Amino acid sequence: MEDQDKHVDSVIKRRHRQEGPQKHVIAFIFSIVLTLIAFAAVAAGGVNIAFTVVILLVMAVLQVLVQLGYWMHLKDKGHMIPIIFMAGGFFVAGTAIITALYWMWWS
């Protein structure tokens, strides 16, 4: 039993060493860069509005992925149930939005 506890402790220590502050700092810098790109896209007045909207949507999706992956730790093992429930929520919300748009424009 002691050998198993030592093994579990060593696995936990190795995992924590691999997930040091370096990854969080990189994720934070990436989030800041995504935000700056979004601000620059809006601040550049001569850019096509459709292109600006596409840039903002892409930056928003990337920002959500960084936030969920690194700050909410959904990239780690054992987080499949929250991911499934969030995917279900996105499906329901997307369906509601598409239904509302269809109802407003084509009814």
From TrEMBL:
Q: Name one GO biological process term.
A: aerobic electron transport chain
Q: Record's Gene Ontology CC terms?
A: cytochrome o ubiquinol oxidase complex; plasma membrane
Locate the transmembrane regions by residue number.
24-43, 49-71, 83-105
Q: Which domain of life is it from?
A: Bacteria
Q: Where in the cell is it found?
A: Cell membrane
- Please tell me where this protein is predominantly located: membrane
Q: What does the UniProt keyword field contain?
A: Cell membrane, Membrane, Transmembrane, Transmembrane helix
Q: How does it sit in the membrane?
A: Multi-pass membrane protein
Which Pfam families does the UniProt entry name for this protein? COX4_pro (PF03626)
What GO molecular function annotation could you give as one example from this UniProt entry?
A: cytochrome bo3 ubiquinol oxidase activity
The entry sums up its family as follows:
Belongs to the cytochrome c oxidase bacterial subunit 4 family.
Q: What is this protein called?
A: Cytochrome C oxidase subunit IV
Q: Which species is the source of this protein?
A: Paenibacillus anaericanus
